[in-house]
Amino acid sequence: MSISVCVPVYRAHEPPNVATLAASLPVALGGLDGELVVALNGISAKQAGVPDGTVIVDLKLNRGVAPGWNAAAAAARGDVLVFANDDVTLGRNALAVIAQALHEHPDAGVVGPVGSKWDLSGAPREVESIDMADAETGELRRCESVAGFLFACRREVFEAAGGFDESYAPCICEELDLCLAVRAQGLHCYAVGGIEHEHDYGISKARPWTRIRHNGRSEMLWRIHRRNIRHFRGKWAGRPELGVTGK
Predict the structure, then answer these.
(1) What is the mean pLDDT of the chain?
(2) Handedness of CA 37, 64, 222, 14 (dihedral sign)
(3) Beta carbons of 155 and 79 less than 8 angstroms apart
(4) I want to staple 28 with a disulfide (CB 3.0 to 4.6 A). Which of 57, 92, 95, 140 is the partner?
(5) Does residue 46 sit in helix, strand or coil?
(6) Element (DSSP H or E) covering residue 4
(7) Nearest-angstrom CA–CA distance, 247 and 71
């Protein structure tokens, strides 16, 4: 089994960053075969601090998270696709635990260390985080979505879902959308115990009036959020089996 860690990078920043993520991979793989695949969103490999030996896809400009993850996945060779932010550091055997969960549980479509339940009756709203504090390593607890800073699926599941919907570029809702697309295949999302990691939240802490430069333009975060919620509702409304009601 081989693992590809797919990461879009659009800015240089202090650790944790893509360099520290890369440094954490050997211990996180636990002896499994793996690679780091970086999609450069309008930044050079040198500026981003991408280490030698990394598979690189240069998108020339900031196209956003979903296009970056899709491009990285297309260049990856792994059976397991791990999607991560560049502000994550992985602990001992973190990727091995992820791969084992997918290998041992055929019904597992998307897995990661942090899962949540959602109210999808209107605008998507997270209502409960799945508590994994007392979970054993490798223990699975079902959820409706897995947090987007670190999650994984088998390649064939990702491809059957059609990859990430790039309509959500540059950010917001892309991982929730993928989780619904995977659940629509009859599979489940699970939070997995014992995935050692550290995460320094970045864009998710940004204020609504923060400007995001993408695809040759600049847009406020609140406008992106409103547009993406509208797209999400138009795409998924009327799917009560997935928890999405209304029209």
Answers:
(1) 94
(2) positive
(3) yes
(4) 95
(5) helix
(6) strand 2-9
(7) 32
Give the whole-angstrom CA distance, residue 96 versus residue 1. Answer: 10
Q: Which helix (DSSP H) or strand (DSSP E) does residue 56 occupy?
A: strand 55-58
Do 69 and 158 contact (CB within 8 A), yes or no? no
3-state helix, strand, coil in the chain (%, to 5): 30, 30, 40
Whole-angstrom CA distances from 216 to 42, 48, 219, 224, 242 are 10, 20, 10, 15, 35
Interval 174-231: pLDDT, tens:
999 999 999 999 999 999 999 999 998 765 566 777 898 999 899 999 999 999 999 9
Q: Tell me how far apart the alpha carbons of residues 28 and 32 are, in angstroms, rounded to a whole number.
A: 9
pTM for this predicted structure: 0.96
Separation between Cα atoms, residue 58 and residue 147, nearest integer Å: 26
Contact present, 80 and 105 (Cβ < 8 Å): no
Is pLDDT at 90 greater than 80 in this prediction? Answer: yes
Q: Cα separation of 134 and 192, whole Å?
A: 11
List the alpha helices (DSSP H) in 134-194.
155-160, 174-183
